[in-house]
Amino acid sequence: xxxxxxxxxxxxxxxxxxxxxxxxxxxxxxxxxxxxxxxxxxxxxxxxxxxxxxxxxxxxxxxxxxxxxxxxxxxxxxxxxxxxxxxxxxxxxxxxxxxxxxxxxxxxxxxxxxxxxxxxxxxxxxxxxxxxxxxxxxxxxxxxxxxxxxxxxxxxxxxxxxxxxxxxxxxx
Length: 172
Known about the structure:
This protein has two domains: 2-25 and 141-164; 33-130, Immunoglobulin-like. The chain contains two helices and seven strands; from the N terminus they run αβββββββα. The chain has helices at residues 2-24, 142-159, and strands at residues 33-38, 56-60, 66-71, 81-84, 102-106, 111-117, 120-130. A four-stranded mixed β-sheet has the order 2-7-6-4, with no helix packed on it. Strands 1-3-5 form a three-stranded mixed β-sheet, with no helix packed on it. Strand 6 (111-117) and strand 7 form a beta hairpin. Helix 1 runs antiparallel to helix 2. The protein starts with a helix and ends in a 13-residue tail after the last helix.
């Protein structure tokens, strides 16, 4: 009976520790969206250039390669349009963006993109897209090895009290 109670305690402790490890691990597909804005006053003239905030974005494919533009410039309408894209990339062309509207685009081709608002020629920005590194961390992160190790240790601790003493090797 005492062995059963200690096995339950050890099992509960192992589950508690494992739940903390799982909570601490990032989601494998967690991708961050980068925010960009057409700030208030951006459409009022070249004195408010570049008109996008920030005017330069650096993103990495597979990490933070989705950009969301928000028109925070009331009452002006804006858009997001590419004037230059890398070879193999598609042109970017948002619809008309009324105040408060957003436009989301996911970059999939590395290179430098030049962006403008076609309504306001002084509103320009650059998006620099970097490809994911070929020497990056593999999909199976080291943290999962720790999880597997904890699970094996917990299983051994739960099973150990049930092993018959007669099966153990006795010293001479």
